[in-house]
Design goal:
- It is a single chain.
- It is globular, with a radius of gyration of 12 Å.
- It is α+β, with helices and mostly antiparallel strands and 93 residues long.
- A 4-stranded antiparallel beta sheet has the order 2-3-1-4.
- Strand 2 and strand 3 form a beta hairpin.
- The mean pLDDT is 96.
- It has one domain: 2-Layer Sandwich (Alpha-Beta Plaits).
- It contains 3 helices and 4 strands, in the order E-H-E-E-H-H-E.
- This is DUF1330 domain-containing protein.
């Protein structure tokens, strides 16, 4: 399993809107993105993380270049962000 972790700096006031973006795009992600296995929203006091599960690192990288991510998700989240997202890909041991 491979994980794509996107950490977002979002103020508490904007978190409900960000959660709405997550909910709106969760099903299309799981239904249309090759290798997509899971998508979880993790909320901490200091940030919000979206953890995506994939079969391979190549599929995780391909998602970052997909229209769903670049045109839809990024555009929906852009006005809610306080800083640039931190994007990492991990291989489960």
């Amino acid at each position: 399993m491979v994980y794509l972790q996107i950490t977002l700096q979002i103020s508490p006031a904007n978190r409900p809107a960000a959660a709405g973006v997550y909910q709106h795009y969760k099903a299309p992600f799981l239904e249309t993105i090759a290798g997509a296995k899971s998508k979880e929203l993790l909320v901490r006091d200091e940030d919000v993380q979206v953890l995506h599960g994939f079969d391979t690192a190549q599929q995780a990288s391909a998602y970052l270049e997909s229209d769903l991510f670049t045109a839809d998700v990024v555009n929906a989240l852009k006005p809610l962000l306080d800083a640039a997202p931190n994007v990492r890909i991990y291989q489960a041991a």
